[in-house]
């Protein structure tokens, strides 16, 4: 059967089909640290919607699993090769098809990189708001498949808020178009929202119509502070929300992470910043405000930070703002310089940030592991990190992560704020959503994908006797 599938794929798509070599190894992993046990049957480098439709028609006819894949920057194991599967690589579908100045939208193929779209939009006085940390290397299709977030979510929303419509190839090869180019549109069920965040389990996103925004005018104000401990910083972050301020970004690095960043950057890079003379236990909180009320908002934030015990630095200088933001951006490179990193992704109500940081500290102490944590404090999204050696995540790290996920849910939060469920978190899905919700979602998948061929095993535990 496999030989027949490969023969027919190659006959239809020629050199776009790869059956051996580095390309097959590359699709066994993403940036989560998870490596698939199984090689792909083949990698198909699709260059058009027709290519995608041909692959899915053949896969449906032969009951061959298909794993849609973008740039491979995922952090939840959501686009990895599985046994006997075709990996459908969309990175060659990388054209910006339209930029509309009046309707403030773009139409793009799934493989367009987030940063490339934003740069093209800025040339027209517009910008694309969703800004995951991987924006320079992650694709729009992958961002939509995981409903990616980023630094600016608290004010400008996650990816779903910027998706107007989609072109999606279904499991049988049918091309479905959803959504509208209009500002408003409520006809029928909102399939665009359903497909956004579906992680390739309902269809293959091949094109998107996305909302652009006018470039924000005026100065950006940056307010940064070092706090005596993470709970004080958490109180300050919650205080910003309580003051009815929505900064463009509000980022927090805990004491463990800040120590690693300081070590990584060195004293010269940190000179003149709030963490130049870092004291034990200190935590870093960074806010930026923009648009017409930026100055007044920065005044309030600086006061809230100071009242919570922060040593405050404030600037309107763009270079200084970028330098301070560079401290936050250095977090993951600093950790990666010390070993492999499991980057986790939980979210809690903003008012519960201090309790969640306390829970993370207690879990780390109980399991004897450091858990350096970065947070998008403006929306309660935390990224606890585990640094380890070797190819596999150690059992005691998974045990600590298990407690951390449950702590987030107990506090009214979620297993994942922006990375998705993928393979890594499917075992905890029912604990957050409940059995009834999971069963309903399985039935929705069955409507879209009756044979269960699309990204098998992602989000939902596989049926007994099947492998992922």
From TrEMBL:
<protein>
    <submittedName>
        <fullName>FAD-linked oxidase C-terminal domain-containing protein</fullName>
    </submittedName>
</protein>
<dbReference type="Pfam" id="PF02913">
    <property type="entry name" value="FAD-oxidase_C"/>
</dbReference>
<dbReference type="InterPro" id="IPR004113">
    <property type="entry name" value="FAD-bd_oxidored_4_C"/>
</dbReference>
<dbReference type="InterPro" id="IPR016164">
    <property type="entry name" value="FAD-linked_Oxase-like_C"/>
</dbReference>
<dbReference type="Pfam" id="PF01565">
    <property type="entry name" value="FAD_binding_4"/>
</dbReference>
<dbReference type="InterPro" id="IPR051914">
    <property type="entry name" value="FAD-linked_OxidoTrans_Type4"/>
</dbReference>
<dbReference type="InterPro" id="IPR016169">
    <property type="entry name" value="FAD-bd_PCMH_sub2"/>
</dbReference>
<keyword id="KW-0285">Flavoprotein</keyword>
<keyword id="KW-0560">Oxidoreductase</keyword>
<dbReference type="InterPro" id="IPR036318">
    <property type="entry name" value="FAD-bd_PCMH-like_sf"/>
</dbReference>
<feature type="domain" description="FAD-binding PCMH-type">
    <location>
        <begin position="36"/>
        <end position="215"/>
    </location>
</feature>
<keyword id="KW-0274">FAD</keyword>
<dbReference type="InterPro" id="IPR016166">
    <property type="entry name" value="FAD-bd_PCMH"/>
</dbReference>
<dbReference type="InterPro" id="IPR006094">
    <property type="entry name" value="Oxid_FAD_bind_N"/>
</dbReference>
<dbReference type="InterPro" id="IPR016171">
    <property type="entry name" value="Vanillyl_alc_oxidase_C-sub2"/>
</dbReference>
């Amino acid at each position: 059967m496999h030989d027949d599938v490969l023969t027919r794929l190659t006959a239809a798509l020629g050199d776009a089909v790869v059956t051996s070599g580095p390309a097959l190894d590359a699709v066994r992993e993403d940036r989560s640290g998870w490596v698939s046990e199984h090689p792909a049957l083949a990698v198909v480098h699709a260059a058009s919607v027709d290519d995608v439709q041909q692959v899915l028609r053949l896969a449906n006819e032969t009951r061959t699993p298909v794993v849609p894949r973008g740039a491979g920057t995922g952090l939840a194991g959501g686009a990895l090769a599985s046994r006997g599967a075709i990996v459908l690589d969309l990175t060659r579908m990388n054209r910006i098809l339209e930029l509309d100045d009046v309707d403030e939208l773009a139409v793009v193929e799934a493989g367009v990189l987030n940063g490339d779209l934003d740069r093209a939009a800025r040339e027209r006085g517009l910008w694309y708001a969703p800004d995951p940390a991987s924006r320079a290397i992650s694709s729009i299709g992958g961002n939509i498949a995981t409903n990616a977030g980023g630094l600016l979510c608290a004010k400008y929303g996650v990816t779903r808020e910027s998706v107007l419509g989609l072109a999606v190839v279904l499991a049988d090869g049918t091309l479905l178009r959803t959504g509208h180019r209009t500002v408003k549109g409520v006809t029928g069920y909102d399939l665009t929202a359903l497909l956004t965040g579906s992680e390739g389990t309902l269809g293959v996103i091949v094109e998107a119509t996305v909302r652009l925004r006018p470039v924000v005018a005026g100065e950006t104000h940056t307010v940064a502070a070092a706090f005596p401990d993470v709970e004080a910083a958490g109180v300050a972050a919650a205080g910003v929300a309580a003051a009815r301020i929505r900064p463009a970004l509000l980022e927090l690095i805990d004491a463990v992470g800040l120590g690693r960043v300081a070590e990584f950057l060195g004293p010269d890079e940190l000179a003149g910043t709030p963490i130049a003379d870092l004291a034990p236990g200190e935590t870093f909180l960074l806010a930026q405000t923009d648009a017409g009320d930026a100055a007044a908002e920065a005044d309030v934030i600086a006061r809230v930070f100071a009242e919570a015990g922060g040593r405050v630095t404030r600037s309107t200088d763009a270079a200084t703002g970028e330098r301070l933001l560079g401290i936050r951006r250095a977090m993951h490179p600093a950790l990666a310089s010390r070993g492999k990193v499991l980057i986790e992704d939980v979210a809690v109500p903003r008012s519960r940030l201090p309790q969640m940081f306390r829970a993370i500290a207690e879990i780390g102490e109980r399991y004897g592991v450091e858990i350096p944590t970065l947070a998008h404090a403006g929306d309660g999204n935390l990224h606890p990190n585990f640094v380890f050696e070797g190819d596999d995540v150690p059992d005691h790290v998974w045990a600590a992560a298990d407690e951390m996920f449950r702590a987030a849910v107990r506090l009214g939060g979620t297993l994942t704020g922006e990375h998705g469920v993928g393979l890594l978190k499917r075992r905890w899905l029912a604990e957050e959503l409940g059995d009834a919700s999971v069963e309903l979602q399985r039935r929705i998948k069955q409507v879209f994908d009756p044979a269960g061929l699309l990204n098998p095993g992602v989000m939902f535990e596989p049926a007994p006797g099947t492998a992922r």
